Amino acid sequence: MDIPQPIISTVDIVLLLIKDERLCVTLSKRDKDPYENQEALPGGYIHAEEDRDCLDAAVRILRQKTGLLPPYLEQLKTFTGAARDPRGWSISVAYFALVDADLILSSANPGLTICPVDALRRLPFDHNEIIAAAVDRIRNKSQYSSLPCYLAGETFSLPRLQKIYEACLGEALHKVSFRRKMDELGVLEAVPGQTESAGAHRPAQMYRLKSEFKNQLKLLVRGL
Amino acid sequence: MDIPQPIISTVDIVLLLIKDERLCVTLSKRDKDPYENQEALPGGYIHAEEDRDCLDAAVRILRQKTGLLPPYLEQLKTFTGAARDPRGWSISVAYFALVDADLILSSANPGLTICPVDALRRLPFDHNEIIAAAVDRIRNKSQYSSLPCYLAGETFSLPRLQKIYEACLGEALHKVSFRRKMDELGVLEAVPGQTESAGAHRPAQMYRLKSEFKNQLKLLVRGL
């Protein structure tokens, strides 16, 4: 007989941000077994009676565990199997989200930890693998899209945006070609009259995403 | 209380092939309700007691419903929600697979139908949406990878491979630049002494994937 089997259905969220010029992930202390009190990705069961779909579940869980509604949330990949959860056969529909670090730090949730993606301990379940998939996706999309802009906050200077792209890509970029690519993307606009003091340098012009690109990625025909 | 809810957990497979120079999808007649006797994507419940993970389930379901083990199988996206299945809240982990048309046609399963992706009727569930996502993925990956080669069978001429790329991309390609890109990809090797008669033209050299690329995509730095 082909009948449904009891399968644990969850959502996990890889919430990424830039801290000290490094790509970091947000971990949340688990409040129940398995792995009680250990740090892991924010996640939880799908609630069939209240979530319309998994995206809805991801938004609910993020709000509950971090207090945030991040500007960018995308389905990453689904992790499944008999071996990944000690409770039994499970599905985790994983999402990744990008957020300005200031939002996380000001939300001041004591249960949250920010950890660089290249300095993670062994995490519960297959969460290291999920994070690695998210970092791959970010790295790939940063080559040819405006994705890293979602890590930059409301307004930012071009030097700061370049540092964010570099943290996502894991490599240094040439300033002149980076600026040419940003021009080509065409998603940024200068904030009139707003500059940032930059130490010994002259103040840097501040930029923001044009309103039409706040919820929509823009792609380059040729990558960075 | 945060306890798991009963959620229908399934796998669906978008099995793509080229027929008459068009990108087509394989539909399978449903043998039970809902939508009994209607054509839909091959799919089925995850069997927690026998499938190690969803990929395993996809391979099992493809074998059962089509008799095939396709050369390329990739997780596409997960489709979820309260509205997509009349039986209740459901998760479908969707995969796409690429196969040489001759394999499908010779498997001669009378329950299977081959339909061009741009000439589909309204299908059960959200299967039109799943197929559209697969076509998008193929179109995108065909721009910069060896993916369409998996649709070409064991051996093929370059004119035939170009037709396959064109069917995937939905646009005509320039012969000279197509061949330069194939050289750059470096995944093909000529089959010694094997040619294909080509009407009034001189016989075309036959090619195959180098063995190291039979199970591994190769990417172009710059797209087609």
Automatic annotation (TrEMBL), chains A, B:
<dbReference type="GO" id="GO:0016787">
    <property type="term" value="F:hydrolase activity"/>
</dbReference>
<feature type="domain" description="NrtR DNA-binding winged helix">
    <location>
        <begin position="149"/>
        <end position="209"/>
    </location>
</feature>
<dbReference type="InterPro" id="IPR015797">
    <property type="entry name" value="NUDIX_hydrolase-like_dom_sf"/>
</dbReference>
<protein>
    <submittedName>
        <fullName>NUDIX hydrolase</fullName>
    </submittedName>
</protein>
<dbReference type="InterPro" id="IPR000086">
    <property type="entry name" value="NUDIX_hydrolase_dom"/>
</dbReference>
<dbReference type="InterPro" id="IPR036390">
    <property type="entry name" value="WH_DNA-bd_sf"/>
</dbReference>
<dbReference type="InterPro" id="IPR036388">
    <property type="entry name" value="WH-like_DNA-bd_sf"/>
</dbReference>
<dbReference type="InterPro" id="IPR054105">
    <property type="entry name" value="WHD_NrtR"/>
</dbReference>
<keyword id="KW-0378">Hydrolase</keyword>
<dbReference type="Pfam" id="PF00293">
    <property type="entry name" value="NUDIX"/>
</dbReference>
<feature type="domain" description="Nudix hydrolase">
    <location>
        <begin position="11"/>
        <end position="127"/>
    </location>
</feature>
<dbReference type="Pfam" id="PF21906">
    <property type="entry name" value="WHD_NrtR"/>
</dbReference>
